[in-house]
Each structure stands twice: as C-alpha cells, then as structure tokens.
Amino acid sequence: AQSVTQLDSQVPVFEEAPVELRCNYSSSVSVYLFWYVQYPNQGLQLLLKYLSGSTLVKGINGFEAEFNKSQTSFHLRKPSVHISDTAEYFCAVNILTGNQFYFGTGTSLTVIP
Amino acid sequence: NAGVTQTPKFQVLKTGQSMTLQCAQDMNHEYMSWYRQDPGMGLRLIHYSVGAGITDQGEVPNGYNVSRSTTEDFPLRLLSAAPSQTSVYFCASRPHRDRGFNEQFFGPGTRLTVL
Question: How far is CA B43 from the centre of its chain?
Fold first, then answer.
C-alpha cells in the first residue's frame, strides 16, 4: 500500500527566510510525485511535479523540490519566502500503474512579517 | 475553458436530508474524483471514475453514491446526511495517462455543514 507522510503540520517562518517542507512516501513501485498549494478558502493548485528525469524539479512561485529515491522523499524548498506564500501545502503520490492519488495530511506554512 | 466547476459553494443540511453535489469539467478528461478534506486528515478519496459508466470506491465511500453518465459530469450524492459528513468536498479531473500524464485539476470546493 502507498502512504504519504508530511511530518510537519505547521511551519512558521519569517519573511525572506528559507523554508523546507518535508514529504516522505512509502511505495514498493515507482511513483509520480506532486506538491499542491491551497490558499485560504480556495481549491488546490499544482506547484510542481516529478514524473521522470532530473531529480530537481522547479515549480511556480520560486518553489523547487528534490526527489530522493533512496530516502523515498520529495521535500519542497524555497530560498526566500513571501507573505503571499502563507497557505496549506500538500504532497501527493500516484503510482505509475494506478489511478489513485494519495495525499499527505498537509503542512500549514505561515510567513511572519 | 471553465476547468472544474462545483455547485453549490456552501450548503447546510439537517441530519437525514439528502442532496447532490454537482461537479462538471470541460476539458474532456477521462478521470474524475471526489475528495473530502477534514482538518489534520488531508484529502481522502471518496469515489472516482475512469470514464463514462465506470465508477469505483475510494478510501471513504460509505454514505455516498456517484454515477458518471457523461464525460463532463460526476455528481456526488449524500443519501442520508450525518454530522460526520460535515467537510469540504473537492472534485478533481485529469486526462488518461495515454494522452500524456498530467496532474489533477481541482474545483473550488463545496463547504457542507450537517446539523
């Protein structure tokens, strides 16, 4: 069975500081990996995705993530956060031969002025 | 394209009432899914469909029914609402993998309260 773990439920960080949101997954087969962002009272929108190729993936709004197969991780990073980055962030996994997406429980990022 | 649309945006029900949450997409996507979002639990899959006439259960299907008579529409029915179904419901769609794999596109959500 597949599962996704986001260890940090809440991450406060000062404006212009770097941030890392952690995501680990468990799967016995190859996967696709995603990070979604949810702004208050809105739906989810894609930040970035890893399907294959380079393990460092760049997304929108200056975010990037690195796929580490040996550690089964897909951590999200941004070198300098803005107030507008305050949101809920979800990591998701889809196995290559399956239909379902599996989501983590989310990390609430709060950027402090 | 409007993308994925959901109606209503908000709904309050009494215990035992039934209702249908509407979801439509205009991107000709084969796959459609319904999720519920609860604090601290992320998104949990209720039901999904891989094409018109084909549906399957997800992680938390009890108390919900779905049907997929057209590619565009994927309504979610609450048969007899319970307070435990108070949640935010999201509909999502994506194209078949053979058309080039893509991410899921989400609707804006429906906030449901059951009293």
Answer: 11
